[in-house]
Amino acid sequence: MRRALLVFIIINVLIIAFLVRSVFTLLTLLIEDGAADAIHRGELPAPNSPLFDHPRLIPKILHQTYKNESIPERWKEPHQQCQNLHAEDYEYKLWTDETAREFIANEYPWFIETYDNYKFPIQRADTIRYFVLAHFGGVYLDLDDGCNRRLDPLLIYPCWLHRTLPTGISNDAMGAAPQHPFLLFVIESLQAYDRNWGLPYITVMYSTGPLFLSVLWKQYMRSGLNTGEGRVRVLMETEYQKHPWSFFTEFKGDSWHEDDARLIFWMGDHWFLLTVTGFAIAGVVFLISWWIYQKLLDFRTPGGVNRGRKASPTTWFWNRKGSPKQRYELVDRHEV
What is the pLDDT of residue 117? Predict the structure, then answer.
């Protein structure tokens, strides 16, 4: 009995350990605030400050993506904001479906099959931004991100991403020097994360989108590479938007996802409740499995006789107290 109980406990502990290990990085994202690598407002000059003069690591290239060269009306204003501020000395690259695929096929032929087989177009839009930043360097912006000020102060960092809520980082605005180790790590990890998770929103988020990038960011921080020119800095929310000194203005984006996104957003807002509920469910499952295990023991009798007949409480008690040999010895002594 004791050996069987020990085996039961060990199996459950191994299952729990496997599940925790599988989602460990996701769990750590819940408490990661990015403060250790934050770009503090004290580091940044005021908008249009003439005193800013630092060597830049990121080239003056602005990347954006769309299916063709006709920018939708709803995004023309943020697009024009960035163009007006940077047209004089920044190179501009708009990656269409055609030019993006051609670039992948020519420069990264090992990835073209994966690229072509993505189920959702947004997955290709996600991946092309990682590849062009790794290859050319520069700054990538979604079309619904407008520019509130020039991006020059962000070019002095080897790589930067921006913090998002409730947790992790986003991929709608980011910058990097060419061949930055984090971006190389990202593009080399894409094929391993190419899985279908059932819901379109989760599939996109965890295969190419912000959740995928956030998980790799956490792994990269633990790798020991997040130092020197390999460091990834984090643009916090106040420096990202909604303030006069912020770099970007955000316009309404595109609803590429379906109704399952509302469920995910609700889960993000109630993550603590869901975590407690998850542990409660795990406890209930453990108790049910223990009850089933006990029921199976109740159907056992000494020596395997009458297997399948439910044992009485007295028999179950004696089964727990000792071996058959010990019980027979007690009976013999009583008769003497």
Answer: 96
